[in-house]
Amino acid sequence: MIGAGEPVTSEQLAQAMATNPVVVRRVMAGLREQGLVRSEKGHGGGWTLARDPTDITLADIYRAVGAPTIVAMGHRSENPGCLVEQAVNDALSGAFREVEALFMKRLGAVTLDALAKDFRRRLAKHKQSLEDQIHAVK
Amino acid sequence: MIGAGEPVTSEQLAQAMATNPVVVRRVMAGLREQGLVRSEKGHGGGWTLARDPTDITLADIYRAVGAPTIVAMGHRSENPGCLVEQAVNDALSGAFREVEALFMKRLGAVTLDALAKDFRRRLAKHKQSLEDQIHAVK
DNA sequence: TATCATGTAACTTCATATGTTACATGATTG
DNA sequence: CAATCATGTAACATATGAAGTTACATGATA
């Protein structure tokens, strides 16, 4: 299974999430720079986790890839000439910090390991449900 | 001044924020639907506040125009077929609710009146600084 | 009735995320 | 060493949505 031992190729990951290998590499490059994953070239190469999955949280991933994309709110222009914008920024700068802090705290509470466990539970249930359907038809 | 008594035209607003009158109307249309502003046609027409500025907060405005744009985070697909997506959604749905609630609370604490007062303060300071520069040159 | 302002549809940029192609680099295998 | 496999990356194509623009209808005022 992905993430356990054997390297996974961008090709496999792309197929699993219905996208393109190059897109996968782009995203993974961010994760690698943050030391979350490793990549190896050549035969038997691909991506592996660089840290224990109990030690990687969604906060790490967010910092590596999500920050510019997901926090589209807040932080417009930092030093606007517009006085209205200045007033709004001033009134909300503390709020944005608070909101972001809470968000990061919640992201930090979710480990890859926990997600993987939940995923496996869902997968088992999914398979079971498929089998039930087959039996029902028979 | 804008917002006090006399209606303000989309033309004036557009000029004040360096954009287009039609764009202004589009945004203001959302505010009007929420009962925050009124519009009048013809001579002397334009936009006026529909409620007391002490009674309008950024939360009202956010609900009227910002929700789809600003909360680009969270709420991807509601019922994804992807089991990984399901696991992540499940792990974070509570978090998103919390974060959004805090955000709304902070927005709700900022009234238009407070912003207007702060704006006027900045405007006065700005003018003062301009005059100082003139004196310095002389 | 002439003018002014909103209301809106339709179209045109513009920016950005995503997808795609092509090729270079490095690692493994026989 | 040559063939193959996989990442690394640049360059380009496509799709989406926000913002800007044009044009015209509607209604209000003088």
In short:
The structure is a homodimer of 138-residue chains. Chain A has 138 residues and is mostly helical. The first copy, chain A, has a domain at 1-51: Arc Repressor Mutant, subunit A (Orthogonal Bundle), CATH 1.10.10.
List keywords for this structure.
about 140 residues, two-stranded antiparallel ribbon, 5 helices, DNA-binding, homodimer, Arc Repressor Mutant, subunit A, mainly alpha
What does this structure look like?
- 2 copies of one chain form a homodimer.
- By secondary structure, the first copy, chain A, is mostly helical.
- Chain A has a domain at 1-51: Winged helix-like DNA-binding domain superfamily/Winged helix DNA-binding domain (Arc Repressor Mutant, subunit A), CATH 1.10.10.
- Helix content of chain A is 62%, strand content 6%.
- In chain A, a hairpin with a 5-residue loop joins β1 (37-40) and β2 (46-49).
- The first copy, chain A, starts with 9 loop residues before the first helix and ends with a helix.
- The model of chain A has no long low-confidence stretch (mean pLDDT 88).
- Chain A binds chain B through residues 17, 58, 70-73, 82-84, 86-88, 90-92, 94-95, 98-99, 102-103, 106-107, 109-110, 114-115, 118-119, 122-123, 126, and chain B through 17, 58, 70-73, 82-84, 86-88, 90-92, 94-95, 98-99, 102-103, 106-107, 109-110, 114-115, 118-119, 122-123, 126.
- Chain A binds a DNA duplex (30 and 30 nucleotides) through residues 7, 9-11, 19-23, 25-26, 28-29, 39-47, 69.
